[in-house]
4-hydroxybenzoate 3-monooxygenase
Amino acid sequence: MRTQVGIVGAGPAGLMLSHLLHLHGIESVVLECRSREYVEQRVRAGVLEQGSVDLLHRTGLADRLLREGMRHEGIELRFDGESHRVPMTELTGRAITVYGQQEVVKDLIAARLAAGGSVLFEADAVRLDGLDSDSPVIHFRRDGRDEELHCDFVAGCDGFHGVSRGAVPDGVLRTYERTYPFAWLGVLAAAPPAVDELVYANHERGFALYSLRSPEISRLYLQVDPDEEIAAWPDERIWAELRTRLETVPGWSLNEGPVLEKSITPMRSFVVEPMQWQRLFLAGDAVHIVPPTGAKGMNLALADVALLGDAFAAWYGQQRADLLENYSTTALRRVWRAQHFSWWMTSMLHRLEKDDPYETKLQAATLRYAVSSPAYATSLAENYVGLPEV
C-alpha cells in the first residue's frame, strides 16, 4: 500500500489529522489495532475547550455537537462547606462544551468513511522502518496477514503504549514525568445530573468531581489510593463516599442511579521531547499525558494535529518545510502550559499528603484566593477554556 501520510492510531488525534489532510487534498491511511466498535465505545474525556469546538466547527464536524453538546460557562469549586462559581465566560468571553471523546471519534469516523477515507481497523502496527529516509514503511498485521504501508511521513497518534514513540533511536528523546500518589475512581451512572456545571470538590477525605455526559447520564470521580482494587468499591460504597465529599452544601444532594461503568485510573504527568524525529511526528498521548483535573488531554491532542495539518499543507502545497521543522517547538509551548495548569489544579484540589496540616492550609488559601481575586479567577478561567495562542 502507498499513501502520503501514514497515521498510526484512530483516536481523536489520528482521525482529526486524517480529516484535516483530506480537506487539504492530502492522502492518508489510518491504522488502528482495535475494532471500530471498541474505539467508538471507549469512554474517555468529555470536556472540549473553546478552541477544540471552533476546530470542529470550521472543519464541518459540529452538526451533532450543536445538537447534543452541553455548553458550560462556569465551573463550581466546593471547599470548607461552601460553593463558589467561577464565571468563565464572563471573565474570558469563552466557554467549554461537554461532549464525550467517543462522540468526537464517532463523528470523525463517519466523516472519514463518508469521504472515502481509508481507516483500517484491527490493523496492528508492529514496526516502523525507514523513518530517516524519504519513504518510511509501517509494517502491520491485518486478517492474519503481514502488510506494509509506504508513505512520505508517519504520524504517531497511537497513545502511550503504541509503537511509534519506541521507533525513535535511543538517546534522541528526553522524558519528563511525575507520578501522583493517588488515582481516580471513575463512575458512569444512569442518573440525571444534579448540577448544571462541573463541580470540583476539595474534601478532607479526598477530591471528588461531579461531571455529566447528557441530561440522563452522570460522570463522577473519587480520589482513591493508587493500589486500590475496583472490587473493593461496590456501588453502595461509591455512592456513600460521593455523598460525603459532594453533599457539603446545605440543601443540596446528588442523584443516584445504576452504575453503568467504573474503573480506576492512576494519575501521572508525562512529556517527551522532541515530538518529532526525521519523518516521524508524534501527537497526543503518544508524547504527553496530563492528569485529567484540568480537562486538557483530548484538547492537547487536537491542538497538536491542528498544527501538524497546517504543516503538512505547507509542505505539499507550497514546498515549505519550516512548519514541519518547527512542529515540536511550537506544540511544546502549549503542552507545557497545559502541564502546569493541570498540575496546579491537581495540587489545589487533591489530598497530596495524608495528615499534612501545612499542605491543607495552603490548599485552602489557594482556593480562597481563586474565588475572591478576579485576576486569579481569570487566570484559572482562561486556562480552563483554553488559550487561543500559546
In short: The radius of gyration is 21 Å. Residues 327-349 form the longest helix (23 residues). The mean pLDDT is 95.
